[in-house]
Design goal:
Strand content: under 5%
Organism: Roseburia intestinalis
Order of helices and strands: HHHHHHHHHHHHHHHHHH
Radius of gyration: 29 Å
Distance between the termini: 79 Å
Shape: elongated
Mean pLDDT: 80
Keywords: Membrane, Transmembrane, Transmembrane helix
Protein name: Flp pilus assembly protein TadB
Structural class: mainly alpha
Length: 485
């Protein structure tokens, strides 16, 4: 077992190294304006040579002015300008990627809403796809829907899934979003098995609306934090430059002779050089936070890492870091649990509880899969026992699971008579949990961006400490020369 885990860790490190090398190689290729234009085109935008040259000229000139302001020696100034030049393609690409991710999010939200409204009228996926296609202007989403329509109209299935599932898979592959999958499961179920779908559609419409609001709210927080980071970079750089010029002007203010130029001393040159490189890095890191996939409501933790934490938390052996692993898994489960319950609520419109649990396994968040498997096993052994339900996630600190699972048990026992009322009560719990989970996740994501605000302050503090040493030596030498006179 230990050998297997070591092998997994080694494989992960190798994958990370390969990914890093590929990223470096890609950034170097982007220095070619043609490659950069092609990459921008993949996001659906055009980038001209004139724009490229203008951006390079403005950024290099701006960094050159800042370098001259710090009176950097030409060797150091050239290195700073080269660093800026190398970072520029990534800055340009991130700007377009940011717009691309925002448009993808808007398109996905519009697609889900329009599909639900259209399906509510016709009750057919093909008709809903055709109507939804007309709401989009020519572009990627329209092309994807057209491809899905073409496959559905052709009626030729290439797998056991069936032509309907394959057609909707075309959209899912392009827009990897758990909510789109949930939508498609509902539409397939409603078309294949029939029955009243209005309640489910209303539930999902409300859910999509809340998801859309959360997405825009989080991105608004990130943009605000990024703006603050840029202000922090400008203020920190200006403060460092201002301090040096004040120090250099001190002899003139005191009518004394300056022993040397503070800005050209070795330590000040090194700290100024380091500060400018640090600020380029901080800006790049802050800009990168705005380019993440809007369609994924995730904590940012690696899925494999979370699953390893789950294994560690469930292990009976005493191991270092088990409490940390348990906390990580509890946070992930708290966010994933309401997603699964919403999926369950939609499935239970057409199936009983136990069948819905089995069906939910395919689309469930990965962290919940072991718990769902354990639940199915308990239900197989003791289908009527309340503990089969309430033992769900019992090893983790999620108080709401017990009450929600009791509701599932009640729905299972009540049959179809009282099921609708029970499902509505369950959904109230789901919405409350989702809002709390989204609040936590948004705070965590926004906090990570806000933390970058301290990076320029940290860089400026290190520089000012170095400059303070030079300043004290400068003052002592100036006073000693004044005393000697």
């Amino acid at each position: 077992m230990a050998g297997l885990k070591k092998t997994r860790i080694k494989e992960k490190k190798e994958r990370k190294q390969i990914k890093k090398e590929n990223r470096v190689a890609k950034n170097l290729l982007l220095l070619n304006p043609g490659n950069l234009a092609k990459e921008v085109y993949t996001y659906g935008y055009h980038f001209s040579w004139k724009t490229h040259l203008f951006v390079i000229g403005v950024c290099i000139a701006g960094m050159g002015v800042i370098g001259l302001l710090f009176q950097l020696k030409w060797e150091l100034l050239v290195i700073v300008l080269i660093a800026m030049f190398l970072a520029l393609p990534a800055f340009i690409l991130d700007t377009y990627k940011k717009m691309y991710e925002q448009k993808r999010f808007a398109d996905a939200a519009t697609y889900m809403e329009q599909m639900l409204y259209a399906f509510q009228k016709s009750g057919k996926v093909l008709s809903a796809l055709k109507e939804t296609k007309e709401t989009f202007e020519p572009g990627h989403m329209q092309d994807v829907i057209e491809e899905a329509i073409g496959h559905l109209e052709a009626g030729c299935s290439y797998s056991e899934k069936g032509v309907l599932r394959e057609s909707l898979d075309i959209v899912e592959k392009e827009y990897e979003c758990r909510k789109i999958r949930t939508l498609h499961e509902l539409l397939i179920s409603a078309e294949e098995y029939g029955g009243e779908a209005d309640d489910s559609i209303s539930l999902l419409l409300n859910d999509v609306e809340l998801w859309k609001r959360r997405g825009y709210l989080l991105q608004g927080e990130k943009k605000k934090a990024h703006t603050n980071n840029v202000v922090s970079i400008v203020v920190a750089t200006a403060l460092c430059a201002g301090t040096l010029y004040v120090l250099n002007a001190l002899p003139g203010i005191l009518n004394m002779e300056a022993p040397y130029n503070v800005l050209t001393t070795g330590l000040v040159q090194v700290t100024s050089f380091g500060l400018l490189l640090w600020m380029i890095y901080v800006y790049a890191k802050s800009e990168k936070t705005l380019t993440r996939n809007w369609l994924k409501e995730e904590s940012g933790r690696d899925e494999e890492y979370v699953l390893r934490c789950y294994e560690k938390a469930m292990s009976q052996q005493r191991r270092f870091g088990r409490n940390i692993a348990r906390r990580v898994v509890s946070e992930e489960l708290y966010a994933a649990f309401p997603e699964w319950l919403m999926q369950m609520a939609l499935l239970m419109q057409h199936s009983n509880v136990q069948v819905s649990i089995a069906k939910s396994l395919d689309g469930a968040p990965k962290i919940l899969v072991p718990e769902i498997n354990a639940l199915l096993q308990r239900l197989k052994e003791q289908p009527k026992a309340l503990s089969s339900y309430t033992d769900f996630c019992k090893n983790f600190d999620i108080p709401e699971t017990t009450s929600c699972m009791k509701m599932l048990y009640a729905i299972s026992e009540s049959g179809t008579g009282d099921a609708k009322v029970q499902i509505q009560n369950l959904l109230v719990q789901v919405q409350e949990m989702r809002n709390r989970a989204a609040e936590r996740r948004n705070k965590s994501s926004a906090f990570q961006v806000k933390m970058l605000y301290s990076y320029p302050v940290f860089g400026a503090s290190i520089k000012l400490l170095g400059d303070l040493v030079v300043g004290m030596m400068f003052l002592f030498e100036m006073l000693s020369e004044a005393g000697g006179m």
